[in-house]
Please model this.
Amino acid sequence: MKDLTARALNQAQVRGAAYADIRIVSRMTQRLMVKNGLVEALEQDETQGFGVRVIINGAWGFASSSRLDHQEVERVVVQAIAIAKASALAKSKDVRLGPAVSVNDSYHTPYRLDPFTLTMADKINLLLKADEEMRRTKAVKVARGEMVFVRENKVFASTEDSYIDQEILESGCNISALATDMQTGEVQIRSYPNSGERQQQTRGYEFILEQRLEENAARVGEEAGALLKADQCPSYEATTVILDSSQVALQVHESCGHPVELDRVLGSEAAFAGTSFLTPDKLGRFRYGSEFVNITADATIPGGLGTFGFDDEGVGAQKTDLVKNGLFVGYLTSRETAQQLDLGKSNGAMRADGWSRTPIIRMTNINLLPGTWEAEALVADTDDGIWMETNRSWSIDDKRLNFQFGTEIAWEIKGGKKTRMLKNATYTGITPQFWGSCDAVGNEKSWVVWGTPNCGKGQPLQIAHTGHGAAPARFRNVRVGVLG
Model:
């Protein structure tokens, strides 16, 4: 690959580029699905290509191609330069990248079992066993199971003398049971390990085995059936809510991860539910949550779906404070946006969805750091409240302020104990008020790094894989249900 990258960078400089980089990306994705005892999907896709970024006359240009040869590299460079020159005619300011980034290194996801070397039969059989267990509950009409594996190889090179080779491996899985009451037409769903989308990490097949799909499948089916007869979640103007770790992870994703993306803040990402309430004047001054709320961006966590060696600008993975003891202290940045706010160097959050897209600011692993509470103690210390588990629905405004979430299942808490099962639980809030009401966070024993493999942003749309470390957390005076 070095001859292709060298040719691209040389051609860009000869034609006047102040800066250029090239990414060569190949990605293999394998997807297996079963439904009601039958194989529904068995897919393996491969894609390969490269993308070139250049700065000419203080403006960006980007072009890409799936053909990897010298002639095509030259054509794409010329196209990127033409786009940059056209962009320069409408620029409001020159691009500034700050200090040069020169890295020669490699990174490979650590794993024990390569999922691509295991037989399809072994993987399908595991899903079919879990499927069978879920359907032992008569009310379950649709049982599904899924596994997804991704291997991405990336080469990055720049005119600042960077050359980086990376291999990222991912493994993910999910099972779900849909139960119906034929008389009333009611439908309820239970999922495991996560809702709707699968739980996924940058690990090998050992991660799938650790989820113990077959062993959890019967419970998933039973809970789906039990929800049909469960009581409707009551509505309250203000009550105590404890969210399980997976729901906390989604709450972090939507109400912290997106609003700290600096391109949203600066107005260059206003499409696809863009912009943010965390404007620059709030940095270091704004009370985002209570003293118990500490949130980081950390691309170095073992297994995190947002874990890598280097971002798509060649900036090394790192850990950054976003919220410290409830105070908003940091953004996710690129090299360019870090200079716009005089923040120094980028914290490595530029990522692209494959070779045909230009990098944009994306979440890495955005984590609510663990507190001191045992998960059981959170319940025991709550006289009256609701435990909510596994996301079912969500809605949040463009600025990431007003939100509503619903969960698959909930339990009423009375006298420090979980009592009756509840269905159709929802809660609403305003981001800083909600996080300001957090008075307890679970400890490291209950802290899980959840994966979100379906985060959409940008036009044209880019899908990013992000991670979120979270433990159960308690929130006071939360509005629950629908009130007139």
